[in-house]
């Protein structure tokens, strides 16, 4: 069962200076060039942390895209429905500090938490400082976008 | 003698490791190690200097606009561009908005839990919390029922077993001194501040087009001013900014400052702990007559040595002899060897990791032990941040600063020497917020006045076209970021970036020793700090957090193995 597209916010988070770690932002940039259902909003969340609370609260439904380093093969896209911050997979950089407060704050402030779907993308061990995605991750950006659209449709 | 390792220090941006030696309950030696590689400089080489701001601001999610601002200043300095007055005002509004948001978030979300026991708040009497709240502030959300509701939500959250953001606290530690009622007050405002800050930062989206990571522009600001134009900064948007600023003043005056004083009153002993270095550096901030006229900055530029408040030394970031960076104990190499220092315009970024393979028990602190370089001013180790800004302003004779500082010392009944401490650092951050939030309104009123009189220019074409640039140029962007003195240095050759170096606030404060063995701020501030319970080194966290560490830009990326050591290790 899915809700109407209107009021849905797709947020890609990550640090674009860290190559694959910024895959969430790259997916947003990719989607900006696509025909999207009316009312679907995109946000380059970058390393926004605390700054994401407002937009996420205002949306009724949030789709997050983030990179993770787990034991799965590179390029694995895992769809999760996390509830508390501790349900989220480990991310690489510092940007998760504010994000965790943001997520738990929904419960603590008594406001209705948005329905959150997280697409966690397994990335390879970082090998250097770069603005570019690795070949493997770059190749699955359209597939991540497709799954995001399928999710919100 | 026992060696305590805190790795990572939580509730900061980035990855910091602290090792401290404790003898008879007091820290006698300390080492601060940034555990992520630095190297944004490498990504910038060869790019268009006008794009540098967009990359530098991606370094960090906390002070994104600070790096963008410093970068455009740096490039404008290199190319001799002077921005129109409105651009300066809008940049000041965005920067003051960042300060206020950042300091409030630091106080409630990153630092308060070092002083506030969340679990104790569950046993508070909401009626008494209400009485205390109403005695220190006219903030309207203060009824017994309101505090009882928050307490109930907190109880459900804790009972659900999902401590989440509160999971890493030392709850019940005997060094927590607040009564349960003030703990409840602070936790309540923790939640209110989270809600409130999201409104204030809308200022960045209004002027910068988007948030996070708003847009900047070399030569001005990327927005136009027109009261009646739908897509411009029009009267509706200006009214919105005006009401956000009004709400910010109210929050700072009626929530942040009363809470700061109420909490500080129970921790006056921290006015004698954590002082550390006796030297303070500020580049000055908030230009009122252009970036090239620092004598008209709201916070003056200068340095204080040996806590001598009767003398302020001049600071010149261009002088090759003043600001220099060492790498003796950092994982880099210089062409001129490990004992050399370099001025940032000649700066080198060559990695040289010699440390152990993580996870490891302890660092080899006789060798290299951090990814942070060690900057010095005339070979002095300097503290940077709110305390430095306030002290330099105080010593420079700034009466606004003197009044608010003297008034607070009087209210807390502590001597002026209490400023040189962990408590002083945390108080200075609050007090400067009180000043800055009013300055934000001044800049806004000035901007509105300009627009009303038809003065709407926000950008200068002068110097925009690369064909007008000299073959080579160098520039310096100096900013006081919320965390302290921030410098970007650029060298431009043939219209491209030939070298770009950042000397960020946390580099000054978190760096390892220099070749002559002088400690930097964190290491110096920990010496003499008592540690009541070696298994729960709350006191270390208090002092380190008082600096508001942010290693996301001091050091970039990941540790050498590409993994973060997530476990909180004490051993």
Automatic annotation (TrEMBL), chain A:
Transmembrane segments: none annotated. The keyword DNA-binding does not apply. The keyword Hydrolase applies. One of its GO terms (biological process) is protein processing. Keywords: Aspartyl protease, Hydrolase, Protease. One of its GO terms (molecular function) is aspartic-type endopeptidase activity. Pfam families: HycI. PANTHER family: HYDROGENASE 1 MATURATION PROTEASE, HYDROGENASE 2 MATURATION PROTEASE. Belongs to the peptidase A31 family. This is Hydrogenase maturation protease. It comes from Candidatus Polarisedimenticola svalbardensis.
